[in-house]
Structure formats: structure tokens, C-alpha cells
Amino acid sequence: MIFFAILGLSFREIQLAFSEELEYGILGISVVLFLIALCLLLWQIYRFCAQLPVSRRPADSLLARSGGFQYATQTNDAKMEVLYAELSHRMSPGTSCTNLGSTLDLASMVDMEEENIQGSLRFSLFYDQLQSKLVVTVLDAQDLAVRDFSHSVDPFVWVRLLWAEREDEEQNSLQCVLDEWQTRLVKKSCSPVFGDQFSCTLAQEEVSKVTVRFEVRDFDKYSRHGVLGEARAALNSLKLSYPLELREDLQVPKKDMVGEALLSLKYLPTSQRLEVGVLKIRTVCHPNKTERALYARTSITCNHCKLRHQRTKQKKRWEVTVFNEVLTFVLPDQQIRECTIIVSVYEVQPSKKPSKHLIGHIHIKKDKTSENEHWKLMMQSLRQPIAKWHLILI
């Protein structure tokens, strides 16, 4: 002010030395920047509102959706206490697995990742009554599908003996793997000849409960082996008093139910923490098997990359093995909302080292299938543990 007074100038006499076009240009840029800032502010408000927890449902409704189980957390020791009234009824040996709250449709067990399935597999089966042995021979395969990028295939066959609780397959009974073998690798052949023979001691009355599963795989040194198809042979419909040779067309691989697990999920968005509770695991064990132990390994993956993993303690294997352990994972909010939870159940024979044997997997992720309703319930009930039964598949 003093400076202008000295010069004898007034504010009205001060004019910027800008052209009219430049002034309108500066004004237009200012308006555009203001609109961009306003849009960013509205987007942040929308994201904040979208992450607010949905109104909590009544406790009875949540318990009904989670299979009829109720539990609470103990803040002192971070352990979970499971309260259930119908466990004795649900865990009775004659109860089918569908009564345990598992909502997975059997039709959804088909692994649709492998679409190019072609070719056939030739094998022979024989049961030696004198030695009480089942003899399985993998002979050859024909016209297998090739990989697009290499136009070749390195096949081998993974053989599993699946033993069911009951012979009636329509009851969808749980199964266990009695034994498993792997043939030799034949490189760069669409019609490989194997000639590998395997045997397993098996009582005659148990033969009708066994299904032999042949899974033809494509060896990959640097990644997951590809699946070229599978063939199955249910022994209850075959006469094996003499060597029986069969050729079966390869089919799309299907998953087998080998157990069930009661899992809990709790998401705390403020601390960006995901808690996975391994409460109970129900599996089927052949009566002739020796003493075994179980443990569960939980992995968190995002975009097929493993981020974190933890495992439970080993517990002696029972028909229903109780763990009641909570595994905590601290991850960024975006990774938690898009991650996949993989629970792998392993069997261990304490008398042998190493003796780790995979029983099966459970996958929980954000998608639209009925099996992953557990994920939806977790996101709708933030900061609350939600328990649900899941099928263990292999």
C-alpha cells in the first residue's frame, strides 16, 4: 500500500499485462483442475462408504447359515471355544457327509481347468486270493493331447487306490487313499508304453470298496504338472480272479471327497488382519492302518502367488480330530479382499521320517459358487468369527 501510494497509483489503475485470450485460458485450466479435484473427492467418499460393514444379521440367522454351530473368541489366550449341541448326531458313523453343513454340489467337483482331454489308457487288474494282494499294471496310453507351445508331451500316470466307507456310490461316502504309486516318465510321446506293475495287500472283503483312479499327467520341471485326463475302475463290478485287461477313454478329472473340516474366518479391516481357525477335521481311516497324526497347513495366495503360510500342531488322528487353533495373517486390505485361502491336510506317521502324506485340499475364495458362501458371510459380518464345514477334496 505504501509503495503504491508513493507511486501515486490506485488499485483500479493496476492492470495485468496479459492478453484477453491468455486470461480465458488460465480460467479454463482452473475450472478443469477444480472439477478433477471434486471427482477425486467424490470417489474417495464412495470407496469409504462401500467399505462400511453391512448391518449385522441376527445371531440365529448366522448360526443357521454356518451349519448350526456357534462359537466365541477368548480375548485372553486367543483360542476358540466351540459350542455345538448336535455334534453327536452329526458325527455318527452312519451319517452321510452332506448332513455336516457342506453345501458343495458334486457336479461342481469337476476340474474344468483342463479342457483338451483326449486319448485312452490301457491297464490290467488282478486279485491274488492266495496272497491277498491286488495287482495293478499300467500298460500304455494312446493319442494323448499335446501342449500347444511345444507340440509334445512327457506323460506319466499317478495311480491311487480309493477306499470308501460304503459300497453304494450314490451315498457320496467319504473315501481315503489306501496306497498310491507313480509310473516312470516317458518323454515326448503321445502313445507311451509304461509296463509298470504295483501291488497292495488287501483283504478279499475289502476289494468291493476300492476304486482305482488312474490320472495321466504331463511332467513339467518348472511348474505344476498338467493333467491329461483320468480313468477309473470300480472293483465292485469286476471279476478279478484272473488278470483283467481294460482300455478306458480318458475323462475330465473329478475331485474325490476324503474328509471334512470345520473352519472359521474372521476379518478385521482396521488392523488388516485375517484369522483362519482350524477347529475340527473329520477323515476316514482304513482300520488296518497304524497310528497316524494330522496337521493342517494354511496358505494365502493372490494372483497364483503364495503370500503367507502357517501350519497347526500335529494331533493324533481320530474320526474327528480336534484342533481349535487360530492362524493370523496380516496383509494389506486389497490383498485380503482378493486372496484365496488354501487349507491342506496332511497325514504323518510318527514312527517314520519323513512320512508326510497329503490327504486333500480346501479352497476358499471370493467368487459366486455355493461352496464359498463362507467368504460372503465373513465379509458381511466383519470382526465376527464365522464357522462352516467344508469338504476336503483330492
Key phrases:
alpha+beta, 3 domains, five-stranded antiparallel beta sheet, 19 strands, Immunoglobulin-like, 394 residues, 6 helices, elongated, four-stranded antiparallel beta sheet
Describe the structure.
This protein is of the alpha+beta class and 394 residues long. The chain has 3 domains: 19-52; 59-106 and 257-393, Immunoglobulin-like (Sandwich), CATH 2.60.40.150; 111-249, Immunoglobulin-like, CATH 2.60.40. It has 6 helices and 19 strands. Strands 13, 14, 15, 17 and 18 form a 5-stranded antiparallel beta sheet that branches. The protein is elongated. The termini are far apart. The model is unreliable at 52-114 (pLDDT under 50).
Main beta-sheet strand count, sense and barrel state:
5 strands, antiparallel
Give the CA-CA distance, first to last residue: 85 Å
Sequence of secondary-structure elements = HHHEEHEEEEEEEEEEEEEEHEEHE
Q: How many helices?
A: 6
| Whole-number count of domains | 3
Mean residue pLDDT: 79
What general form does the structure show?
elongated
Cα-atom Rg, whole angstroms?
Answer: 31 Å
The CATH architecture assignment of the largest domain turns out to be: Sandwich
Instruction: Look at the helices and sheets and give the structural class.
Output: alpha+beta
What is the number of beta strands?
19
CATH topology value of the largest domain:
Immunoglobulin-like
CATH homologous superfamily grouping of the largest domain: C2 domain
**Helicity level:** 10-25%
Strand content is 35-45%
